[in-house]
Specification:
Elements (H helix, E strand, L loop, with lengths): L1 H10 L8 H15 L9 H38 L23 H7 L8 H8 L7 H8 L7 H8 L116 E2 L2 E2 L21
Antiparallel strand pairs: 1-2
Helix pairs in contact: 1-3, 2-3
Organism: Hyella patelloides LEGE 07179
Protein name: Heat shock protein DnaJ domain protein
Pfam families: DnaJ, Pentapeptide
Length: 300
């Protein structure tokens, strides 16, 4: 068992015996790195490899979480079973003498009922119509035959369930989530949204000024005309995000992935995008038409 667990810990890059918190954090980091949506759509070979890797990560996380929960439940039961029981207190115990029996009361009560009619039961059976001994058998014969395997067959025909995972392994997922509330024009300034998953949500014209969005998953989010002044977007995943006319003044974009995002008309004045002369933001396929760049110039 320990050898199997060790292999699952290795998949998550952990040592044998790592805590549940370490398992969850390692899973989030690896799922962020290996998500197929971070790869170019035209490279199907890499997408398939990353999807397979993500399946292994999901499987390892699920088994290790189950192992930790079972150990936690077992330790709780063992602690409760070893708890010493309080000694019984006999100081307030009182002896109650049994009531005296009435030796003839039962006999006298039997003498009081009226005498029995010995043949009444026989006569009532004689007057009753004769039984139909085979009626139950005949009714079962006329009933339609049972289908003993119908439930099994219906389960066989149903499609197999897909286990839930923190991130989807499909690169063709639809990120429009109708069950999420429309958050357009919401005031979320100075909020703590570190590592939150807002993929596909509508936050157009929302106020995220000085909010912490570091390590958040913002794939295909709608932030058109949103206020992100001074927001912390350190290592945020903004693949394919809609940031048209967004206000990103003085925002921290170090380590952010803006691949395929639309920044047309956005204001990036004073945004932090580099360390020294090295650009620290991924800008593959970004649209910057009419955007104000961090140095104040306008991109044509």
């Amino acid at each position: 068992m320990s050898s199997n667990l060790e292999s699952y810990y290795k998949i998550l890059g952990l040592e044998l015996g790592a805590s549940l918190e370490e398992v969850n954090q390692a899973y989030k980091d690896l799922a962020f790195i290996w998500h197929p949506d971070r790869l170019p759509r035209e490279n199907q070979r890499l997408i398939e490899k990353s999807a397979e890797k993500l399946k292994q990560i999901n499987h390892a996380r699920d088994l290790l979480r189950s192992f930790h929960h079972q150990n936690s439940a077992a330790s709780t039961v063992s602690k409760s079973s070893n708890k010493p029981q309080a000694p019984r207190d006999y100081r307030n115990y009182r002896y109650t003498a049994p009531s005296q029996k009435q030796p003839y009361s039962s006999y006298q009560s039997r003498q009081s009922p009226p005498p029995r009619q010995p043949y009444s039961s026989y006569q009532s059976r004689q007057s009753a119509p004769p039984r139909q001994p085979y009626s139950s058998y005949q009714s079962r014969q006329s009933a339609p035959p049972r289908q003993p395997y119908s439930s099994y067959q219906s389960r066989q025909s149903a499609p197999p369930r897909q286990p839930k995972s923190y991130y989807s392994t499909s690169s063709q997922d639809n990120y429009q989530r109708p069950y999420h509330k429309d958050m357009s024009e919401a005031d979320l300034s100075h909020g703590d949204f570190k590592e939150k998953d807002f993929a596909g949500r509508n936050f157009s014209k929302a106020n995220f000024s000085h909010a912490d969005l570091s390590d958040s998953f913002l794939h295909k989010i709608n932030l058109e005309e949103a206020n992100l002044t001074g927001a912390n977007l350190y290592r945020a995943n903004l693949l394919g995000a809609n940031l048209r006319k967004a206000n990103l003044r003085e925002a921290n974009l170090i380590g952010a992935d803006l691949s395929g995002a639309d920044l047309s008309g956005a204001d990036l004045s004073g945004a932090i995008v580099s360390k020294g002369k090295k650009i620290m933001v991924k800008l593959t396929g970004v649209k910057l038409t009419g955007a104000t760049l961090p140095d104040g110039s306008i991109h044509n």
